[in-house]
Amino acid sequence: MKIVAAEVIVTSPSRNFVTLKITTEDGITGLGDGTLNGRELSVASYLTDHVVPLLIGRDAHRIEDTWQYLYRSAYWRRGPVTMAAIAAVDVALWDIKAKAAGMPLYQLLGGASRNGIMAYGHASGRDLPELFDSVRKHLALGFKSIRIQTSVPGINAVYGVAAQTEGERYDYEPAQRTPLPVEEDWDTRAYLRHLPGVFEAVRSEFGPELPLLHDGHHRMTPIQAARLGKDLEPYDLFWLEDCTPAENQEALRLVRQHTTTPLAIGEVFNTVWDYQTLIREQLIDYVRSAVTHTGGITAMRKLLDFAAQYQIKSGIHGPTDISPVGMAAALHLDLAIHNFGIQEYMQHSPLTDEVFRQSFTFTDGYLHPGEQPGLGVELDEQAAARFPYVAAYLPVNRLKDGTVHDW
Question: pTM higher than 0.85, yes or no?
Answer without folding.
Answer: yes
